[in-house]
Design goal:
By secondary structure, this protein is of the alpha+beta class. The protein has eleven helices and twelve strands. The chain has two domains: 1-56 and 207-224 and 249-326, 2-Layer Sandwich (Beta-Lactamase), CATH 3.30.450; 60-206, Beta-lactamase, CATH 3.40.710.10. Helix 2 (63-77) packs parallel to helix 6 (148-162) and helix 2 (63-77) crosses helix 7 (166-175).
Length: 326
Amino acid sequence: MTADTGGWPRWASPADAGWSADGIAAALAYAATIDTAALMLVAGGRVVFADGRVADRFNGHSIRKSLLSALIGIHEAEGRIDLEATLAALGIDDRQGLTEREKLATVLDLLCARSGIYHPSGYESPWMVSIKPARHSAGPGTTWCYNNWDFNALGTIFRQCTGADIFADFAARIAGPLDMEDFRPEVDGSYVDLPDSGHPAYPFRMTARDLARFGQLFLDDGCHDGRRLLPEGWVEASTAPVSEAGHSGAYGYMWWVARQGVFYPHVRVPEGTYAAKGAGGHVVLVMPALGAVLVHRVDTDQPGRAVSRGQFGRLLRLLLKAAPRS
């Protein structure tokens, strides 16, 4: 538990933060049996513990979506992005052509994964491919589906409406003001062209200690060091349970949201919990009820390495047993 957390302040011991050292040790012992590469817990703005490769950059996979959501909130407040604008009004199309009905989808529909557009996309996990409905089977706004077409098209819309590069803008608007130590926009962000869609993916490579700062920003309602970085009300709106997501809880504006404690198998999470998640077990978990942020990383650059939802649920259950009791 002596990983390099850089400029983060630390508690002298877990007990000083109200967490059980024995309980944390039990959780870390379990983490050592699965493919966890880094694990970091922050409570009250200080590190409770950090274990593993917290200063190593890993592909965050779909965590990228929550990062973009924060940027969209900033530009929406500044008048560059209109959440009610339709794809038709924005001139958004794709290689197979979108129908007039599909073009009625709004930016907000895409942000909530409710576009009803099931045009081929890419940069998808096998699960994402398996759940995609038939093309034209739903109208805009009517049905939730975790759909990379929506998320990738939002990257195109962001760049078109703002004239900004996603990664440079994240560095200027969020990483820099948050005092992130590791993020380098010119090398840690890239656009991945896709064979079936004109809307590229935009993966970020980030460290656990930087992602913890992003989670802390949301825990602090979009403020850092006395300065508001995200618009007032955006954290509340984007992490509200807009859509039912079965045993994964609910979904907001490109954030996963717990629903009455339902979030991961084997554990009931505190009310108000939400997370940015990436394939293979990457998680930035924000638990307002505990004033805490948990970051979990996996070296998914290595083939076959992953932590399943069930494994993470078991790990989280052990950690919550170590949490302060009200």
